[in-house]
Amino acid sequence: MKLAGEHLYLRPLHVNDAERNYPSWLNDYEVCRYNSHGDTLYTKEMALSYIQNVQNNPTCKVFAICDKASDKHIGNIALQAISTKNQSAEFAILLGDKAFWGKGLSKEAGKLLLKYGFEILKLHRIYCGTSEANTPMQRLALSLGMKLEGRRKEALFKDGTFYDILEYGIVFA
Predict the structure, then answer these.
(1) Which label site among 141, 148, 151, 160 has the fewest CB atoms less than 10 Å from its CB?
(2) Contact yes or no for 81/59 (Cβ under 8 A)
């Protein structure tokens, strides 16, 4: 399955992705500055294990974000914690290749994934949480039509500091 946009496409994450740049993204402080990754060394073997675990897992759909012009894998995007009972899922994104930052690609990928979640998976609600310090993710959530739903006080410990997690969500209308 391939979900195509104007500048990028989404394809299922593949074991071959563990052999490329993907593991290094999770060791890059700047890439992981606002998430729970980057605290320990992330290896190729860990990436391979993760990919194998999610490939046929009904509770998550993980896609590689690929640049159309170069076919380069530039990030990952996922619907995780999929609940068929509640018809909901958690949205997650990591644009790992910094050369592609600031080009609107996270929004394009996010729109493709939300469309997939609502139209193909028939979800009713998609949500995400992010550090109060992660203003780019907050802007992305809002640009995708998500609304601020709440705050988890001091729920993330990163670099010696506790941060609140801001919760966003969107309901299929």
Answers:
(1) 160
(2) yes
